[in-house]
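Final report, closing paragraph on structural work. Over the funding period we assembled a curated collection of sequence-structure pairs, and we close with a single example.
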Amino acid sequence: MPFEDYTPQDFVENEFFCQWVLHPTEDTSAFWEMFLSLHPEKYQDILKAKALILAIKETPAIVPDEVQIEQMWQNVITRTIAKSEKEDFQSDSISRSLWRTYLGWVAASLVIVVGGIWLYNKPILFHPNTITYQHLIEYQPEKLSETRNISSDSLQISLPDGSSVILTKGSRLSYPPSFGNIRKVYLEGEGFFEVKRDTARPFVVYAGQIITKVVGTSFWVKAHDEKSDIEVDVRTGCVAVAVAHFVNEPLSEIKPQFLLSANQRASYSQLDKRLERSLVNNPLPVIRPKIVSEIVYMDKPVVELFEELEKTYNVDLVFDAETLKNCRINTSFSNETFFERLEIICRVLNTNYQIVETQIIVKSKECS
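Its predicted structure, as stored:
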């Protein structure tokens, strides 16, 4: 449910709102200031919710004074009338013991919310298992535009800042009509992003629990459903990848777990709750290769060839240069992929390699 449809009690039960009232930060204050500027009609509801939260915090086991009771109980009456449709319901017919019971219930609810336990089946606020695309877009302070690719082909869209996204079949992306200090977009499915460089305004992609933050680069993000792994593949540049713990968690409080460069991947298992880093399946050249049909190497030092591959594909090849110093190779490359080229070299050297996260470890053997 969007915040603009919230009642005071809904705000009290919302963990993100409670955090702002009890422990405000620059990010949360900016969020709610923006929300109120867009929805000034919610000002009184937010004031009432704040008053109730603070009253519970200060005196959770004591009945508030008459003024507080009148202010807060009127909201309860309004909700009760709406639900029961009893027009003759009067506040003076309700005993103070009932009010104590209600206040205790609200206080207990608030403790549960702050503690991170579920209430009313609303885990989307802070439980990592349930952050979905729909949850992300519903809990934003401004209206978002959504583009969905319903065709059988890829769809390219332009964003307000000049960045572009290619959406695969069945994917969708939500974003605001114009970006603020942080360029935020929300993805379900697969999208290839080419981000216009703007060092003053980071570009952030939300996909399930995964947050990808960049300045200017190109990369894939894949987030299909709640069971599939979420993947971030970097094509060019550098991106920071983090895991969110609840919807609208302030970016300043989220610590990036990995900093990825070209041809690296972050993969998040939604079942195991584990984020891992690796190489992409098919590393592509980061340095534009010379336009030739075939590259021929005659008596090429293997160490130099490995170093050339490292620079061309931005990969980390681990090998013993001293052991391989006398190794030379005669070979040629044309349209082979990175791993095909590596396998050709290893076959000539009668050795093999092992991939450990983003490193490729070549078992070095001396050459006679």
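Confidence is low (pLDDT under 50) at residues 59-70, 79-128. Residues 96-115 form the longest helix (20 residues). We thank the funder for supporting this effort.
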